[in-house]
Known about the structure:
Elements: H1 2-38, H2 43-51, H3 59-80, H4 85-121, H5 146-166, H6 173-191, H7 196-210, H8 225-236, H9 239-256, H10 259-269, H11 275-305, H12 307-311, H13 319-334, H14 343-351, H15 358-384, H16 386-389, H17 405-422, H18 428-431, H19 434-437, H20 439-446, H21 454-458, H22 462-481, H23 483-494, H24 500-517, H25 520-537, H26 543-556, H27 565-571, H28 584-612
Helix pairs in contact: 1-2, 1-3, 3-4, 5-6, 6-7, 6-22, 7-8, 7-22, 8-22, 9-11, 9-14, 9-20, 10-11, 11-13, 11-15, 11-27, 13-15, 13-27, 13-28, 14-25, 14-26, 15-28, 17-20, 22-25, 23-25, 24-25, 24-26, 24-28, 25-26, 26-28
Amino acid sequence: xxxxxxxxxxxxxxxxxxxxxxxxxxxxxxxxxxxxxxxxxxxxxxxxxxxxxxxxxxxxxxxxxxxxxxxxxxxxxxxxxxxxxxxxxxxxxxxxxxxxxxxxxxxxxxxxxxxxxxxxxxxxxxxxxxxxxxxxxxxxxxxxxxxxxxxxxxxxxxxxxxxxxxxxxxxxxxxxxxxxxxxxxxxxxxxxxxxxxxxxxxxxxxxxxxxxxxxxxxxxxxxxxxxxxxxxxxxxxxxxxxxxxxxxxxxxxxxxxxxxxxxxxxxxxxxxxxxxxxxxxxxxxxxxxxxxxxxxxxxxxxxxxxxxxxxxxxxxxxxxxxxxxxxxxxxxxxxxxxxxxxxxxxxxxxxxxxxxxxxxxxxxxxxxxxxxxxxxxxxxxxxxxxxxxxxxxxxxxxxxxxxxxxxxxxxxxxxxxxxxxxxxxxxxxxxxxxxxxxxxxxxxxxxxxxxxxxxxxxxxxxxxxxxxxxxxxxxxxxxxxxxxxxxxxxxxxxxxxxxxxxxxxxxxxxxxxxxxxxxxxxxxxxxxxxxxxxxxxxxxxxxxxxxxxxxxxxxxxxxxxxxxxxxxxxxxxxxxxxxxxxxxxxxxxxxxxxxxxxxxxxxxxxxxxxxxxxx
Length: 615
């Protein structure tokens, strides 16, 4: 409102006057010290001929600044209804004192944080040389090193692989071998005995070496190693991978040129000082940012924006963990929002035939995301009750910035790409697939090194790309071997007679449990192809409905610190004294109930909207 704007403008004018006075005093003291050390007479001449004649230090500038402050005080008095300008000045001085307290508190905490960083960097290893006659300290050997644990886990996974190979569960040899490979790869992914992308690289290797692929023709003859390698490599680099790269390019440009930060800062500046509204605004910003810069980069951006708020909170305030949890959970919810916001959505699109348009995806995801955010927001208010410990917080400042030509160019390219993706179904005769459209931002953004450079290209999340490629290869192998058909037949017999809604509830519950403990992407890679096949076998096929519901639920699995990157990032945050803001108990009391909230929203509102759209 106008009262708030005049108050903020008065404070800014006061800060400007203080800044000028501080610089004048600084020049005066520096030159005085210089004269003392060098035994010269520079100060009077330099101050008279250089400093005092500079515009910020002239009487004209100081007088103009004073007139503007008086005008703002008068305007503040008028809009506030004060009887005199003295009353307005008294109120404004109180606001100034609050501002000074906030600034001092922030600077002090920043100094503590910098001191901790310096001390951490300056730690030296102890001297290993023993003084003559000093007693030799014997160290107790560790029970098991990390490498030994890793080797033991790999050995256990290999044992399961050997047992699955030896115990006949399927009639076909390819199915039996593919079953053993599926279990082996799934266990390696779940236990992270090897890095996820390394395990993904094993998939094409094992697919060819174990001979699990068959011809897509009716004869289903066994493919030779040469034919299998061509088939698996052609499947790995698909339109899904190009869509992933196009999303990475947009995210890199929006982040590098500060467009995401500007938008987020503007929204947060409108949230006011009420903890409830600030929490909700931050959650919506995190969800919106996750739509376009992925739910990996969005929490990093949002956590950097709330640093000033966290530094000014009093000790014992529950608003800090509440706000961090809100951003982490909302970023997970944002993973549902758009086809490019998370890898599991890319996997779902690749599994659904025909693929949904962007308009269809948004029609389902946006209502689900909004209701999930509102439900989680209400839950966090009940769990943490931040308004009790922190009635008011410092408002986020936003400095209006004029977009430069590069930022405008990035906005145009991003809007054009998103529009083309939304119209893909109408442009299919010309572009064929969304992967071809993804080439547009890659060329337009990387074509000009000042927009995105080769270093930005190298900084892509290539491990995620390799993981997605391995997942596509695994899906192709499971389908080609006939294992997918066999698994779907057995699950179909279990859900035989169930309505579509009940099947959706079962699969959403399954993927909720799995993705709480393992990566969302990995869970989707393993489960979504089976969901699609079972959905296609129902009396009334609803494969697309079940796949999209399960994909949304994968992002909604956020009950533990390991359930997704936003949670892992949140639990690692520390205050300036090195104390963590969150503990595992925070996720038990807020994360698990939030996953349940997401589950019920997806199987109710999500199911209703998908049914209306004919999924």
